[in-house]
Amino acid sequence: MEQINKDDISASRNDIWRQQLRNNMSAKERTAIPRVEMPHLEPDYRVSCSEEVNCGLSVEQAVTEASRCMDCPDPQCVSGCPVSINIPGFIKNIQRGRVDIAAAVLRNTSSLPAVCGRVCPQEKQCESRCIYHKMHKQPVAIGYLERFAADNAPIADAVAPTPNGIKIAVVGSGPAGLSFAGAMAQYGYDVTVYEALHEIGGVLKYGIPEFRLPNSVVDKEIHALQQSGVKFLRDCVIGKTLSYDDLHSLGYQGIFVASGAGLPRFMSIPGENLVNVMSSNEYLTRVNLMGAGSPMHDTPVAHGKCAAVIGGGNTAMDSCRTARRMGAEKVYVVYRRSEAEMPARVEEVIHAKEEGVEFLTLHNPIEYIGDDKGRVCAMRVQRMELGEPDESGRRAPVPIEGAVEQIPVDMVIVSVGVSPNPIIPSSIPELEISRRGTIVVNDCTMQSSIGDIYAGGDIVRGGATVILAMGDGRRAAQSMHEALSKQR
Question: Are residues 143 and 19 both part of a single domain?
Fold first, then answer.
């Protein structure tokens, strides 16, 4: 595996022949280049550790992949990005060897490019709009290139904007909160982020395993925000430790709520109260945030030899792959639809299969069975078939009469969705809340029914990707800035 360092990047900048070669390429030559493949750790090794699976592109790989970009006059990839990154702008600077400028272009609109380059579903967003699809070819690897630029750009000194003296509070340090905080800091506001947990990062820390998103990457992005003037306070639950009125008395003129959706859902089937049946939220938080399984921490966590993960999203993939790393010899993913309907990223499904996870698609659990000590020892699953599309547009799963089987398991991780954190909504009675428990906002401005409260991310959407949450944060920051500017 080739390691990237500053000497490599400098060499790339000074490699005149390579730059001339790329610049002189015809469109036909560019489209003939195959899409780069991400180097990754071998499955047998990676299930034994928490090291990041994807290793990142080398300089040569990144420059070659960047040269595939056609620099379209109407780049649809930009419209496919929830934060409207200037995608051709940063890619062309990678091609020229100017990784520093590429990273600067990214940070103009994204506070977390190293995170987004790893966990955003580019295949459903920016890459889905790439012109290469019209040629029946693989799109430019925008996500891989974003990660490369963010990881390998020289660290630039932060340029602090002129402060305007207006204090802004952010509730929650997940992707929506961090994105909002970064944008408001750029406008010159005095921004403080309140985090309920003992670590900054929200779902980026407690929900996404290090083999997919290392904590060091998140910490680097947070440090960049601190350099721009953003302050962080841990172990403070807004709605409990401090109230809405307390924030006013502290002088905050605007509040952005990004408290997430940390309330797990279950299926209300028999046996869910058995020992070793848990939510993915609990399981991943114990392992990712609290160090369960590490000899340096005392946090308890269930260890099963045969685990079942219920669900087919990215959190389910994180859970099943974590279970393998925690010693489970057999891991099932149980999903009621077919693999084609599975919402998880294709790359994550592939990695899970490589790591020995078995997929029971078109199966749905109907009961968990316990032993004489109250521990789960088996699950009963109903075989399904696909019927007509439901309200989501996907074909609805229909039970096959009489097709029920029992499978031995000693641990079940339920990953069928989450609900919004109820603390903020319940602590401000005047705040308009939807029947799902989400904060109701104006879709354009992200402003709530209370004028100085804006909200975004899972507390509004009920469940969203990192980049959609970041888009909410940036949109709310622009709207709040415009509203506060009119008051001055």
Answer: yes
